[in-house]
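Give me the fold.
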Amino acid sequence: MYIIRVRGVVQGVGFRPSVARAAASMEASGYVRNDGSHVTIACDMEPARFMEGLLPHLGPMARVEDWSFEEVDGELEGPFRILPSVEGEMDSPLPPDTAICDRCLRELTDRADRRFLYPFTNCTDCGARYTVIDSLPYDRQRTSMKDFPMCSRCQGEYSDQGSRRFHAQTISCPDCGPRYRFLGSDLEVRAEGWDSFLECARSLKGGGRLIVKGWGGMHIICDPANLGSLREWYGRPYKPFALMARDLSFVESAAHLPDSARKALISPARPIVLLKKRDDAPGWVRSAMEMASPGLDSIGIYLPYSGIHHLLFRALGSVGADLPWIVMTSANPPGEPMALDVGEASKLGADGYLVHDRRISARCDDSVLVSDPFGDGVIAREGPFSIRGFPVRKARGLVPDPLEVPHGRKILSFGAERNVTVTVTREGRAYTSPYVGNTRHPEVVDYTLDSAGRFMYLFGAGDVEAVACDLHPRYETVKIAREMADERSVPLIRIQHHRAHAASLMVGSAVEGMGVIVVDGVGYGDDGLPWGGEIFHASWEDIDRVGHLQYFGLPGGDASVYHPERIAHWLSMEAGSDLDIGDEKVRSILAASHSGAVRTSSMGRLLDALSALLLGVTWRSYDGEPAMRLESLLSRAREPEIELFSLPVRGREVDVVGRWRILLEELFVNGSPKIGDRSGDRRSADLAMGMVRSIISDMVEVGMKGVDDNEGKMGISGGVAYDIPILEAFVEEVKARGMTPVLHSRVPPGDGGISVGQAALAGRML
């Protein structure tokens, strides 16, 4: 007989039932068993033939990555069996949470079905997985479903080899499973079951600001028409909110929907996809989108992914509020992670709470994705479920997504400070946590530690060989990493921020050896200054800094990050002009302290200064706001005046101040320079894009010098690499030089990918 060991996404995806059905169809004897996180199959059939016959039986969530076999003595008789799980090495991927499948959705809406209107309807092909798993191997008693014993009818389906719920560990029904309740603002129960959805819908119709408990955390919901009051209540005047649309046809009426975006929206991952708003959408739709993402050309939209969402839209129709979309955004008190239960969420003081009684094993926010705008001619790998694009935030539906790294070491890494993720590596694979948050807040630090512990346990990397972190001396993640390294008596490895970005691109693209420009906010540099516009020659042997943007001032340090007009004033003074920023007192202070300002090479801060000058943005209310507002202006450029800003490159340094001088001369021919909103001025868009395009061109030119002609690849990474006009400029410049652009795909370009690069480089250094 043969023993076959299968690795891949084989836990929690109906893999063992698929094996049993395949064996029955091939009349094979033997058994299948979970061993830790891989699966062992014993059979009396030649292994290659058996595996070939198995593949057509696998469900949509299952993925075989590799398999091996050995021939052993013994005989197998009788029908093929599913044996109880045993514990073993944990070294394989876990399945992500995926959207309710079509068959379960039909049951949910079928009055004759016993799961009619039951929000936790799922099968082996769909539903919550990562957010319910406590430990491996994946069995019901190791999930948060252990608190809900199966009724006799569910047990019958679970045992029926012909059922698609055969050995479905999260199986339940209205008789035995979790339930929803609706609580009033006083947290008293107002309704249960389907009535709780109707009560929630009535409150939404009446203008209520509500909180809903989903699979991986809590969400704030409201009618988009009430976004103004929501912003005032939530204290977030401008930060973009995501909208959940009832169906794809409504999305098409509100936003442009290229094929790659459509595919991502309807994929089992169901991410929030950033789409370009339609100018020809109905007025009430355009108004709601502007309230959801003020000053931006893009809007984040996603489709219902759980029974909860489908029932909520049905309930809205039942109470006469047939809304085609609702605001659906993460619920978290200021400075805290996404709430997991009503106790945490009640700090927000909502008008009502739609909650269930199933424990959330792992917090998991919604993924945010930019679909691939380029198509062929670039290197950008497909992600899970064949999604093309790059994640802004990688979480529900896309986590865990193991990636290959160039070493076999066990490394734990902690990312930077904002948009933190945690990564562990083991046997050549990297496993990265969902988005964690900003570790300046104590509650997020606790969540970071929890994420590290969970991932080390689930992926068998508790005995890490090193801990990696950022180079910055004051990041909370550095303190955490140092303490963890000391506790385990392992090396602490410090990785420069932008080299980690470059390494994350190599991991995500599977490209080794290329030029990389990193356009970012700020990160602590080798020279102690904040970098952010860097040019590297990158390989796994070395990531060599070969150029950068000209250093310019950050007056007041961090204060200039929140008041970008101060950076614009510094650049203007350096260019020989005195910019009117609207506050004479601050203006005189800036002039007096000009020479003492901290210097940076940050592309992100340069874009912030442009946003202040051209759009009048003098206060950053959320991370990345000035540059995101500028992106909308850049996208409106039609004839970028690139040649106007063409300047010689001085060695390794790309000119910034000289271009700023040209910009001021062109903008203020007949007057003194001053900040203001020029968003409606077509030439301002062309000038801004011309300046940015010329800078990108010079960075590419510096980066390609010395890159091996046989490689011929140039990549782009960093937080600014989310900006579509800048990406388009980069792709055109690289292609114009006969090289191949490399873009992010399976790793976020921003700080959410830092931990991946840190872990990859730290293992190589060991």
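The CA atoms of residues 130 and 757 lie 24 Å apart.
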